[in-house]
């Protein structure tokens, strides 16, 4: 089928390629001229046969919001927007309501798989009305792995991004579990072969997983990770997961701890721990002591 | 090669069977008569050609300790004990030192894989002196998956059980990450198909893993887990992991949170939360109020 | 000075009484007739000399929002609204912007102290423009303790409720610290006198605090807290604190753990822990087993 | 009464002085000559009238253990040792059993209050047999605050150090709660006066406490804590508290999070977070990427 792909970055570009490999006609648009088929959103809409299907694969936040806003005046009744980026599920609902006034359908699609997806297929989690989802179904089939798995229609609009958000929250927790295990083995004086231990776990164990495979790859190239700093960004979906957990009164200590570990990794000097140092100095009766003085104590 | 297997339960029995399938001669002993080849430890030792190799697969704690104690008077110089149960790595060192005085070798082997191991092979993590490990190597090869993976000699005595302990700690964290994600999706009103979402994640996603496979199996049979109570035991290795983290000053918030969630799941009424309720009542100025009164508040 | 008090519940009623004790003229309005001086917001506004000062002490959310909305048409330029309830700091800003269009000033005041405040004085944390805060200053002086402490002008509009929110977040963490200590002593077999231990801590120790005083009072009446259930509500400010921490990338593991402990205390059966139970059953190779079967295990 | 004080450091020296102020006869011994009354343990024992009472106030671990070992040959039946340092409660029991064979009594006394204790009095938590505790009671009365509070006989041998350990665990949690609140207010752009906010909380609020008083003192001297590094040691009692919680299956998320925050504060570069960075790089398909490259992502 025909689809307009908006955004041709690492994700959008690879997805367009996979869709073409599977026989679909993709008209690509991006702000940067390289690799795009049309030079503007207006031109893209013009090129597509109504009723049109557009797949958005843009950075979350303003780029996606602005594009959807612009599309309300370009698209017409019966057209369909598939939002494949990382939109917050609450925003999905508002956008869908807004587009519906113009007769434009909206489907949210969470996409997992990174650069490996072009070859292996992507995990696709979809939210939207049954008829809208049905129209885009051939695209989902092309993008997911050839085995037929990797696809779910999770619920109404927002459900796709909600479960993608939860997927990423789980991912945070799993990554941190491996990270803590690594640090503990590295800190111990009894384990001589940390990379070999992880490698051995790839078969027969309970923790075997794609993340373990990736960790083994990383340790193959840099056995003690000496080329890396212990610094980790977060992309926002972990924060949203914690926010949703708090909103729903769901205890999520593991996912939250994983998020906070990332926050802490980015602090060259923790303000909170200055307070601890200050209080420990006070125990010693000093008005203020420098951290270097070594006078502080518990009491 | 010839090996004496002590303990023929769910783990030991299956391992003996797998070893025999691979052509090894296993003489099995267990307290319970069913399936054993000899009726006592003494008889077992008598049946084996020196230098003997014995594999212990017993409940951790006293059963293992008592058996090793008894073996010091039965075995002779040049014999080798492989401890395959869940011994704490600190105890391994003491046992090895003790056996060495009798000329008996000691290797600790952490074994992962549960009932699935007989067919798929087990993950085996070994600690001990190179020559001791080498002697038992054919057994490790038979027990691990046929692909050649699943084996590591992690370090000196204790290293095998140390990394198995860490493996289980990581497992706790991964399980809890999935558990929190499940609860959040189930609590949300936007996700209509929680089991289908987990099933879809088995391909193309970052969280694909053996634990996810197991969870999908569980949800296949009981889609809302209504047949289960939210109650989880812990087998001790999670506690040891937290203890080792504290000893080594390694922050392990995720593994610890997973352990504490299990502790809390077993409390019909939390004493700690009674304190919170009591304090909230005090804010309201009541000497003591019943929880039912609804008078308590933050302030 | 003259002030209109809107809301005469446990907090508003006591505050009105303390203001009158200190010589201020309070005109009180509440939905319920008992104790109110006027029968409607309109009548209240009529009774007050312009430029008027109104203090709102209502449940957060709709009651406060609706009242402020109604006041926009009743109040005039130069009047001032002090919002003393638990408004989210982000909403304060929007309300202040909205009222400013009508020439109405807005000050947010976080109030701490519960029912003890009428006698001891309240902690008051204020946000707003300097001139607005100055106008309400006599009220703040009357409400805070006679010692002259207990007051801060923390910043612009929203700052008062922000720091009150953080205050409550800290309170959550402190309460949970005492709660965990209580449970640990109660679980131990070495401590014979848990209430006496807490009582002894009221002097000479590092943990002496008002919360400790309250806990000692509670244990005086119910030494093993047997009259209470381990069930704790949360009033929303803990959630907001976690939300703000996540928004600002501030690791807040203690405050968050305290919040999650409350969430968990309200769950008769944890969905997350059902997942753990399900996975443990899977290790044993059972498709699904009942929790009672005792077959589950780590692996 | 007469007492031998072993250890005349910041704690022991001040306690000796307070005991003398209250009319007790203190014979002091320390390794360092300054301020001591006798030059050896043997001389100390000789100076004291049997039945003797000795108070040990030494660094925990070897110094205390070695001294108690030496005293077994110097003291006689009917003498009493009060161990006032930070011994692990499990070790108390072993020591008491050992001393009992020589007819020597043993009382463990947890002491709180730091350098402030000389003037204000100390919190004293005692474990031991009733008759042993009774003999040392005049010392406890002299050391605790003049108000008559600050003392508890918590249970048998070990109970004093157990509750002191828990006290310190609670202290960790409370400190971290304040620390997180500080960081959140400092990170926010709405709070202009963080020190003033803490100062205001000293009266009328729920969080008023001695720790808050100390924090206000610290902020008086260094309002943004710029003279301190965010680095915090731990003295071991927090670790023991977590260990005891794990042993007793008591969920202690707040105390543990406070401990882990200290661990993390001492790491210039977190090995665990290198793993997170490595995995994020892998998502991008790079074999290994430097942290600086900014190519890593969630997926």
TrEMBL record, chains A, B, C, D:
Residues annotated as domain 6-phosphogluconate dehydrogenase C-terminal: 160-299
One Gene Ontology biological process: D-gluconate metabolic process
Protein name, entry field: Decarboxylating 6-phosphogluconate dehydrogenase
Record flagged with keyword Oxidoreductase: yes
GO molecular function: NADP binding; phosphogluconate dehydrogenase (decarboxylating) activity
InterPro entries: 3-OH-isobutyrate_DH-rel_CS, 6-PGluconate_DH-like_C_sf, 6DGDH_YqeC, 6PGD_dom2, 6PGDH_C, 6PGDH_NADP-bd, 6PGdom_BS, NAD(P)-bd_dom_sf
Designated gene of the protein: gnd
Stated family: Belongs to the 6-phosphogluconate dehydrogenase family.
Keywords: Gluconate utilization, Oxidoreductase
Taxonomic lineage: Bacteria, Bacillati, Actinomycetota, Actinomycetes, Streptosporangiales
Keyword Hydrolase among UniProt keywords: no
Pfam families: 6PGD (PF00393), NAD_binding_2 (PF03446)
PROSITE patterns: 3_HYDROXYISOBUT_DH, 6PGD
Gene3D superfamilies found in the cross-reference section: N-(1-d-carboxylethyl)-l-norvaline Dehydrogenase, domain 2, NAD(P)-binding Rossmann-like Domain
């Amino acid at each position: 089928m025909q689809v307009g792909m908006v955004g041709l970055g690492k994700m959008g570009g690879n997805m367009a390629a996979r869709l073409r490999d599977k026989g679909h006609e993709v008209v690509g648009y991006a702000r940067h001229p390289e690799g795009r088929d049309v030079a503007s959103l207006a031109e893209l809409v013009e090129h597509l046969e109504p009723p049109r299907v557009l797949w958005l694969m843009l950075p979350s936040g303003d780029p996606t919001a602005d594009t959807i806003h612009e599309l309300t005046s370009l698209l017409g009744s019966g057209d369909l927007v598939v939002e494949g980026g990382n939109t917050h599920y609450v925003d999905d609902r508002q956008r869908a309501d807004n587009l519906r006034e113009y007769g434009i359908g909206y489907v949210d699609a969470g996409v997992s798989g990174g650069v490996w997806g072009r070859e292996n297929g992507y995990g696709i989690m979809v939210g939207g009305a049954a008829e809208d989802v049905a129209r885009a179904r051939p695209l989902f089939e092309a993008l997911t792995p050839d085995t037929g798995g990797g696809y779910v229609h999770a619920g109404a609009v927002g459900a796709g991004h909600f479960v993608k958000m939860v997927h990423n929250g789980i991912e945070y927790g799993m990554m941190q579990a491996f990270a803590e295990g690594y640090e503990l083995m590295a800190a111990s004086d009894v384990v001589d072969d940390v990379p070999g231990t992880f490698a051995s776990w790839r078969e027969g164990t309970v923790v075997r997983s794609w993340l373990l495979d990736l960790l083994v790859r990383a340790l193959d190239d840099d056995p003690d990770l000496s080329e890396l700093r212990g610094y980790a960004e977060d992309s926002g979906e972990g924060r949203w997961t914690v926010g949703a957990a708090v909103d729903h009164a769901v205890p999520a200590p593991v996912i939250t701890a994983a998020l906070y570990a990332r926050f802490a990794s980015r602090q060259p000097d923790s303000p909170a721990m200055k307070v601890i140092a200050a209080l420990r100095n006070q125990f010693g009766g000093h008005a203020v002591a420098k951290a270097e003085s070594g006078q502080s104590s518990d009491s």
